[in-house]
């Protein structure tokens, strides 16, 4: 039996969100980074405060819920689909997917510190 795989991309998250760079110093640094290693270092430093910063009421950060809605809408049966959250960060999309009924969510991210936070959500089947 082959299960359908759904891919959720952080590119979609970036398109859907309107977080002002001047409000988030780490975001401005990440956008200005010139290579993968620099970007990973920035996100590793940001991991501890990321959720608090993006969940601030002033941010109106709804991207995780919107991405989950789009991903689940493309599935006939979210509870039986395997979903890959590419660039899962701290797991906000995984949490939204799990709350909407998804059961098999795998997350990938380049930042070990972000993966540590994502693991604490309990939403993922596996993280790498």
TrEMBL record:
<dbReference type="InterPro" id="IPR041698">
    <property type="entry name" value="Methyltransf_25"/>
</dbReference>
<dbReference type="Pfam" id="PF13649">
    <property type="entry name" value="Methyltransf_25"/>
</dbReference>
<feature type="domain" description="Methyltransferase">
    <location>
        <begin position="83"/>
        <end position="122"/>
    </location>
</feature>
<dbReference type="InterPro" id="IPR029063">
    <property type="entry name" value="SAM-dependent_MTases_sf"/>
</dbReference>
<protein>
    <recommendedName>
        <fullName>Methyltransferase domain-containing protein</fullName>
    </recommendedName>
</protein>
């Amino acid at each position: 039996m082959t299960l359908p795989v759904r891919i959720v991309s952080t590119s979609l998250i970036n398109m859907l969100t309107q977080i002002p760079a001047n409000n988030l110093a780490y975001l401005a640094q990440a956008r200005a980074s010139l290579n993968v290693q620099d970007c990973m270092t920035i996100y590793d430093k940001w991991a501890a405060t990321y959720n608090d910063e993006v969940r601030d009421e002033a941010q109106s950060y709804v991207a995780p819920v919107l991405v989950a809605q789009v991903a689940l809408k493309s599935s006939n049966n979210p509870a039986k689909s395997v979903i890959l959250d590419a660039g899962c960060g701290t797991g906000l999309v995984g949490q939204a997917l799990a709350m909407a009924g998804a059961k098999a969510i795998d997350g990938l991210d380049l930042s070990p510190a972000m993966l540590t936070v994502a693991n604490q959500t309990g939403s993922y089947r596996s993280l790498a």
